[in-house]
Amino acid sequence: MRLAPKIFLPVAGVLTVVAMTALGLGVLLIQSLQNHLLERLAQGYEVTVQLAMDRSIDEARNLAAVFLRLPEVEAAYRLALSGNIHDEADPTVQEARQSLRRALAPMLSGYAAATGTKLKLHFHLPNGRSLVRLWRPVNFQKGTTQLDISDDISAFRQTVVEANAKRQPQQGLEVGVGGLSLRNVQPVTAADGTHLGSAEVLMDMDLLFEEASRRLQVDMAIFIDDRLLPIAVQFQDPAKHPHIGSFVQVRAPHSPETVQALDASWLAQGLQKRATRQHGTRFLTAVPLQDFSGNPVGVLVLSQDITSMTALLKRAGGAAAMAIIAILAGVLLVVYLTVRIVVLKPLAHLTQAALAIRNGQLDTTI
Questions:
Q1: Which residues contact 19 (CB under 8 A, 6 or more apart)?
Q2: If you ran DSSP here, which 8-state letter would residue 1 be given?
Q3: Which region, left, alpha or beta, applies to residue 94 given φ > 0 means left and ψ of -120 to 50 means alpha?
């Protein structure tokens, strides 16, 4: 074997191994960077959704606070409590209900004119019955039947029961007959400190999540634990609200890839703590939904197309690989030229001189 390959090839081999190791580490680094970015993205989703819910609760509390200490509200409650609040059709309670409608009609009309929506203000009696839903013409409707009565909501409105029992605000998610709702139930207290009942302003959960989905630019789905179906009668139709294991779909995702990525075991993880997974071009985050008392009731799934992020990281990886290859080629060229100029050329001259001396040319310069 010639001397040049003996010197150059081992050096080239070592440098190639070093370059390939650097390239492998670069790939791992880019993958780690992507995982880190996606994890931060998932954290951001969870925080953003929670902040949106908190803002909605604050808005509901502030709106309800406008009405809680009005003399007209106290007077109506005093009147209702003078009757039989356990009788859904008590005439005195009915009179109090009408009194609230008359007293608050101008304010509710002004709110509707300003916002284009009805203020869903609901007053409750201290025994867990509804006093009046001020956005309805009559207080209670079941199917096509409309009755102006104090219907009992204590069986499925634990926030109302707790607010009246503890005389403290109860806020957060609650699963009721109408589905998953964001509640902020405030005690109603008279000027002398007497507890009168409770009140709340209902916020539109669908609108909240729709706005969050638009702002985050994600596909959004909601699932609740099927053990809540006896209460959440709205979701009992499996044709409209299919099951995935022990979970019932409340809000359907739009992306087919999101649907394909969902399974019961992963949703079960998301019921306990934030869980993430990647499926094709989509990155999914499952966030636990807890009710007002801190019990897990469902899972919020956010799904984002990460094609652009993946493509960007691939381009970055490709550029890094090309840079490493270019550096390796440059180093090998420098090594090759150095070996030829510094080692091989002088060595060839020395060899020729030695041969000349051996042949009797003793005046040869070395």
A1: 324, 325, 327, 328
A2: -
A3: alpha
